[in-house]
Amino acid sequence: MLDIVLLGINHNTAPVELRECIAFTEDQSKSALHSLMGKKFIKEALLFSTCNRVEVLVVTDDSARAVVETKNFIAEFNKIPLNQFESALYVHEGNEAVRHVFRVAASLDSMVVGEPQILGQIKEAYRTAIEEKTSGVILNRLLHRTFFVAKKIRTETGIGDRAVSISYAAVELARKIFGVLEGKKVLLIGAGEMAELAVEHLIRCKVDHVWVANRTFENGVELAAQFNGQAIRFEEIPESLKTVDIIISSTGASEYVIRSDQVKGIIRKRKNRPLFFIDIAVPRDIDPEINRLSNSYVYDIDDLKGIIDENIEDRHKEAIKGERIVDEAVIRFREWYESLDVVPTIIALRKKMSAIAEAELKKTLQTSMISEQEARAVRKMAEALINKILHDPTRFLKRNGMRENKSLYIDSVRKLFNLDE
Amino acid sequence: MESIILVSIVLYLLSSVSYFAYLFLQKDYLQRAGLFLLLIGFLFHTLTIVYGFMRSGHLPVSNMHETLSFAGWAIAGVFFGITVKFNLKILGIFAAPILTVIMIAASQFPNEPAATTQVFKSFWLISHVTVIFIGEAAFALACGLGILYLLQENEIKSKKHRFFFKRLPSLEMMDSIGYVCIVVGFAMLTLGLITGFVYAKAVWGRFWSWDPKEVWAGITWLFYAVLLHGRFALGWRGRRSAILAIIGFVVLIFTFLGVNLYMEGHHEPFTKF
Fold first, then answer.
1. Is the predicted pLDDT of residue A167 greater than 60, yes or no?
2. What is the per-residue DSSP string for B42-75?
3. Are residues A373 and A272 in the same domain?
4. Is B87 a residue whose pLDDT tops 90?
5. CB-based contact (8 Å) between A271 and chain B?
6. Which of A304, B13, B54, B164 is such that its CA lies 20 to 30 A from the CA of B201?
7. From CA B226, how far away is CA B5, in angstroms rounded?
8. Please, which pLDDT band fits residue B115 given cuts at 50, 70 and 90?
9. What are the CB-based long-range contacts (under 8 Å, 24+) for B222-230?
10. Does A307 reach chain B within 8 Å, measured CB to CB?
């Protein structure tokens, strides 16, 4: 009986220095797949490598030897002695290997639980395996199930719902205040990666206009061009508060750039339209007192971090639901996998035939024209027919000679006769 | 008829349960189920109103039972309008329970047909009552939105995103729909007062007779007028607008029920039990 085996390292078991040494590039994984397939005990293979993990998934008829072969292969291919990484390597077999693949694809095992990229990366790895023809009946089925499970977990749980980065959390908040962001005006004070990222997210949400204020006007002009916006002078900030809706501040100033009394007078002029301040600077740029003014909201970097922590906790709660879906899927897959054996297939084939014969006999014998004796003869003939028809396929399936492609033949038989219904 | 009222009460109750489940579990099908149950309940409810109309030959608002039932009917109607227009899923969490309570209250009062008098058969009276009730329903929903607004604003201001943050829509959305409700309510109330004046002139020979109900209706109208003026001229929106919508509705309830309980006047028989 063939077995599924998975070997891998990830961000929990190995530091980045080690992961770097073992990672496979796209081209490398193609040649790696071919050398893996050259091994004696490996029948199917899939290789999956990202910056956070390297996983080798193989189908084998001797798992113990396949593990050794694969380990040696990783060491040889990356030119790194086995003892340097063996302790970081985890090995899963059978159900556990299946579970691991499901969990990884559904992003339950990710550094940031629920991050969406991983599924795409696995799809990419699978495409490579298909192109290189290293994926067979079992891995094909496993990977298709994997994509199905990952998608199901994403739609049925809230695992990817809430923002887990500062800039996304800020945009999520803006949405809860303003509803649609279309037509809103944004003011960016200062510069900085996080602040600029937040502006980019806002632009994607179709905000109307971006102003950039910088102590050095030239820098402001440059940054504004990047956002298709407009630079204003630092002194113009108080005046601009009349028109802008979202203010993102990230300067190196040692005191508040916007004070409470400046905003107080503006609010009435704005006719109480809400103002949302996102303060990413340390020390802070925006007077926290502003949060107490009506229809003004101030979030500083700690507030945003607090929200992210809550959201991550939320994702972990949702992940528990995801684990349940994985458990179910593993059992389902195991059922299919076990049916790939010879005996259950022959039994299923026989059952199917008998059921057909039974149904047809019932139809034919309903008419009272047929005597008891004749009916018995017809039944006998039906049984004999089944035996004769199944004689050759049964012998073929039981023959040892088809060991090499056993799962392929069994799978074909099951498909031909629709035995998995 | 009693049994049909009971059916609609049960449906409203189930709708409330469904909306509560939606609030907690956030599954869209629960919201759809809530809306559907409310709609079926509304159809049964409409039957009872039509029956009341057929039985007496005029708008069925001649006793407390009928009046409350009619008020609930108006709320359900306006609720459907708002929900369909703005795709505001969460409002049912307010409307369905209110509706259930109103209908249970209504069913506690005897429903004896009042003697048909000529008073009820005027076109002006029918318009007066219908329009006023639609207005009151709109104000009720504005109050509900105000409450939801304050809950959401509190979570955003306090930076503790607990229960409501992800369950309630954006502040802007609740504020602007609440505003629409108040505009509709105010327009209807104004129209209701005008038709009331015309009718009073026809029956009692004068537009205004310092009846307590009239006085309180006037106070309510002034209150909402100030609220709307504040919004237009001074930009009273958000928190202030939400609080005023809630207070306004309390005043309205007093005008609707309190006046009849504590004061006397010519509206008395319609809401007396």
1. yes
2. HHHHHHHHHHHHHHHSS-S-SSHHHHHHHHHHHH
3. no
4. no
5. yes
6. B54
7. 39
8. low
9. B223/B247, B223/B248, B223/B251, B224/B139, B224/B182, B224/B185, B224/B186, B224/B189, B224/B248, B225/B186, B227/B182, B228/B182, B228/B183, B228/B186
10. yes
Q: What range defines the domain where residue B208 resides?
A: 122-273
> Residue for token digits 């790895």?
A125
Query: Which tokens hold the place of B42?
Result: 């509304």
- A125 and A171 part of one domain: no
User: Smallest Cα–Cα separation from B223: which of B255, B196, B197?
Assistant: B255
Name the residue facing B165 among A176, A179, A180 (closest C-beta): A176
Residue A378 to residues A357, A368, A382, A389, Cα–Cα distance (Å): 11, 14, 6, 16
CATH code for the domain in which residue A261 is found: 3.40.50.720
Q: What is the DSSP string of A29-92?
A: HHHHHHHHHHSTTEEEEEEEE-SSEEEEEEEES-HHHHHHHHHHHHHHHHT--HHHHGGG-EEE
pLDDT band at A420 (very low <50, low <70, confident <90, very high): confident
Task: Point out the domain boundary residue: B91, B121, B151.
Answer: B121
User: Which residues does chain A have within 8 Å of residue B172's beta carbon, measured at their own beta carbons?
Assistant: 177-180, 274
- Among A1, A16, A38, A51, the active-site one is A51
Rounded distance between C-alpha atoms, residue B170 and residue A177, angstroms? 5
Q: Are B29 and B233 in contact (CB under 8 A)?
A: no
CB A220 within 8 Å of CB A236? no
ipTM: 0.82
Residue in A with minimal Cα distance to B240: A294
Structural domain boundaries, residue A359: 349-416
Predicted confidence (pLDDT) per residue in A213-261, tens digit: 988 888 889 899 988 899 999 888 988 999 999 999 988 888 898 999 8
Q: Is the pTM of this model over 0.90?
A: no
Question: Coil, strand or helix: which one is A275?
Answer: strand
Domain containing A48 — which CATH number? 3.30.460.30
> B233 CB near a chain A CB, below 8 Å?
no
Q: Which residues of A touch B164 (CB under 8 A)?
A: none
Is residue A333 in a domain? no
- pLDDT-derived band at B232 (thresholds 50, 70, 90) equals confident
Of A308, A325, A360, the one marking the end of a domain is A308
* Orientation angle between helical segments A372-398 and A406-416, nearest 10 degrees: 150
Residue of B152, B157, B161 to mutate for A, most A C-beta atoms under 10 A: B161
Query: What's the helix, strand, coil split of chain B in %, to 5?
Result: 80, 0, 20
Task: Give, to the nearest 10 degrees, the angle between helix B28-56 and helix B92-108.
Answer: 30
d(CA A316, CA A181): 29
Q: Are residues A50 and A115 in the same domain?
A: yes
Q: How confident is the model at residue B66 (pLDDT cuts 50, 70, 90)?
A: confident
Same domain for A118 and A22: yes
Q: Bridge-partner residues for A188, per DSSP?
A: A212, A248
- Check whether residue B55 and residue B142 sit in a common domain: no
Q: Looking at residue B119, what DSSP letter applies? A: G
The pLDDT value recorded for residue A402 is: 58
Q: What is the 3-state secondary structure (H, E, C) of B205-267?
A: CCCCCCCHHHHHHHHHHHHHHHHHHHHHHHCCCCHHHHHHHHHHHHHHHHHHHHHHHHCCCCC
Q: What whole-number distance in Å separates Cα of residue A151 and Cα of residue A145?
A: 10
